[in-house]
């Protein structure tokens, strides 16, 4: 139904509190049952994968079920590592008397808004670029409207940032040809990673300028490749989780519209926690009646997307046995 069984990258997102982590975990178990090797990753700073599996999970991969490895990205640790990498790179290209100022600026950057997100996106990009060698599918328990849209905008942001840096260089005119390749607005096909700048753009530059340019181009190529993967419906699928309630429907409507405008492939919706048909009290009968109105709204609003309805379970869901019950309710392709 969702055609997830051939995807290499699956994002599971939705409003907070609708059961994203439970559904992400159940999808991971389902894919593993099909014989696929799965890497399940939480990018939410308030991780709950470990709670879902009743198993310790940290920033390194750990086996949580047959065929399923999991990790929870530590955003603070990622910021520290990201700042350290950037600082090390800047020092290579700067005069020694500038080092104290570089360190001061980078320490300030560490506390700035967006630093954590930038570091997180860098980690996500590298995982998508490197881990497919080891896994059949990578599942992200995250919010696609935030992370993924920003991830997709990075090639353009990188081009603007790179252009600003290189214009400060005495070699600006020499590098202008490279900038044309870096800028998507220059008419280049940024959806094709093979159309990236040529390998010979730096051939006539001095060693220092060539090294700076190659460093920038490597990052640019990385984000080109990631964008290509994320917009390819054969490789990537986004699953939205919502409950049959007004606010999750509104947020999902906005998210679906935004992701469609970015040409991101939406695999379908999981409508979670539906009340059972048999209701034995007036209270739940009213809740069931209200739910039926929202279910009809979901049917009308998302008529073009596959939809799966999962029941409200009578108890909390945590631990492998409970997740396998949810897995059994998921649609199979």
TrEMBL record:
Domain AAA+ ATPase as annotated: residue spans: 6-232
Domain of life, per lineage: Bacteria
Catalytic reactions on record: arsenite(in) + ATP + H2O = arsenite(out) + ADP + phosphate + H(+)
GO molecular function list: ATP binding; ATP hydrolysis activity; ATPase-coupled arsenite transmembrane transporter activity
Record-linked SUPFAM superfamilies: P-loop containing nucleoside triphosphate hydrolases (SSF52540)
Enzyme class: translocase
EC numbers: 7.3.2.7
UniProt xrefs under CDD domains: ArsA (cd02035)
Family of this protein: Belongs to the arsA ATPase family.
Listed name of the protein: arsenite-transporting ATPase
High-level lineage: Bacteria, Pseudomonadati, Pseudomonadota, Gammaproteobacteria, Alteromonadales
């Amino acid at each position: 139904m969702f055609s997830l069984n051939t995807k290499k990258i699956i994002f599971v997102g939705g409003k907070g509190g609708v059961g994203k982590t439970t559904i992400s975990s159940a999808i991971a178990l389902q894919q593993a049952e099909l014989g696929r090797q799965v890497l399940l990753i939480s990018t939410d700073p308030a991780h709950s994968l470990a709670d879902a599996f009743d198993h310790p999970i940290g920033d390194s991969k750990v086996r949580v079920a047959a065929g399923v490895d999991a990790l929870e990205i530590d955003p603070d640790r990622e910021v520290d590592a990201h700042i350290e990498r950037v600082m090390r790179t800047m020092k290579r290209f700067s005069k020694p008397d500038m080092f104290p100022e570089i360190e001061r600026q980078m320490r300030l950057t560490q506390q700035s808004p967006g630093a954590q997100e930038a570091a997180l996106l860098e980690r996500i990009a590298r995982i998508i670029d490197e881990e497919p060698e080891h896994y059949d599918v990578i599942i992200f328990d995250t919010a696609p409207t935030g992370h993924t849209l920003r991830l997709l905008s990075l090639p353009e942001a990188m081009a603007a940032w790179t252009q600003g840096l290189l214009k400060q260089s005495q070699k600006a005119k020499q590098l202008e040809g490279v900038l044309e390749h870096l800028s998507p607005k220059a008419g280049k096909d940024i959806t094709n990673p093979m159309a990236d700048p040529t390998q010979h753009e730096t051939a006539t530059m001095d060693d220092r300028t060539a090294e700076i340019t190659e460093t920038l181009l490597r990052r640019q190529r990385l984000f080109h490749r990631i964008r290509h993967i994320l917009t390819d419906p054969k490789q990537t699928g986004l699953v939205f989780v919502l409950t049959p309630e007004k606010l999750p429907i509104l947020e999902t409507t906005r998210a679906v519209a935004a992701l469609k405008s970015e040409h991101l492939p939406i695999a379908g919706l999981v409508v979670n926690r539906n009340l059972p048909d048999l209701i034995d009290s007036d209270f739940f009968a009213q809740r069931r009646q209200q739910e039926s109105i929202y279910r009809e709204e979901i049917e009308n609003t998302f008529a073009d997307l596959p939809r799966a309805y999962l029941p409200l379970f009578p108890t909390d869901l945590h631990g492998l046995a409970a997740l396998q019950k949810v897995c059994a309710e998921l649609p199979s392709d």
